[in-house]
Amino acid sequence: MMNSLINHHIKSANEIISLDKRKDTYWRVQARQEVSYEVILNRGLLEPMNSTLANTCGVSGVKKEQRLVVIDKVVFDLYHEKLNTYFSIWNITPIWKIISGNEVCKIMDQVISVVDAMIEAGLLRRTQAVIAIGGGVLLDIVGFAASLYRRGIPYIRIPTTLMGQIDAGIGIKTGINHEYHKNRLGTYFPPVAALIDPMFLKTVDERHITNGVAEIIKIALIKDYKLFQLLEQEVNKLDAHAFSSNNLRINEIFSRAISGMLEELEPNLWEATLERAVDYGHTFSPSLELRANPPLLHGEAVAIDMALSIGLALQRNLITVAEAERALNLIINVGLPITHINFTLDLIDTALNDSIKHRNGLQRVPLTARIGDVIFINDLTKNELSAALNYINFYENKLVQQYQVS
Ligand SMILES: NC(=O)c1ccc[n+]([C@@H]2O[C@H](COP(=O)([O-])OP(=O)(O)OC[C@H]3O[C@@H](n4cnc5c(N)ncnc54)[C@H](O)[C@@H]3O)[C@@H](O)[C@H]2O)c1
Ligand SMILES: [Zn+2]
Question: Which domains are present in the chain?
Answer without folding.
Answer: 38-203 (3.40.50.1970), 206-405 (1.20.1090.10)
